[in-house]
Amino acid sequence: MERIEKRKTHRQIARERIISRMIKKSEVPRIKARILVVDDEPDIVESLQDLLVFAGFHVETAENGQEAVDLLATTRPFDLVITDMKMPRMDGLELLRISHQLRRHLPVVILTGRGTVDDGIHSLEEGAYDYVLKPFNTEKLLRVVRGALKSRSLQVGTA
What we know:
This protein is of the alpha/beta class. Mean pLDDT is 84; it is low at 1-6. Helix 4 (65-74) packs parallel to helix 5 (92-102). It has a single domain (2-158), classed as Response regulator (Rossmann fold, 3-Layer(aba) Sandwich), CATH 3.40.50. It is 55% helix and 15% strand. A five-stranded parallel sheet has the order 2-1-3-4-5, sandwiched between helices.
């Protein structure tokens, strides 16, 4: 274990310990749901991936909407998509629409650093499960993730 930790930066080790404490504190269930994280900012992707992996989820990432669509169309089904709103080439709303065409009951959570009330309302009207502002509170985001996964299992069970 020490050998592995020596290769990691102090920042990575500190982040892992903080996330681990938060997960234990909030008693996040160890669900092996598949989550696709889509964001053009590598730091955000890394933070989300760390948080979700430590929470027990399987996480794959994409740098843009087109890469996400390719993954959605070609890999085993995902249980949730978390995407940034503002990205080059394809924004989060377009990815939301295409995601629902490919997988009808796939919940999509939209993240944004430059959100407005109108953007949030429009996202929800388009079918987003939730709309979360960056910087996000990790405990709140984990609650949103659990809620989205629970709603998906209810929708799929009734379809």
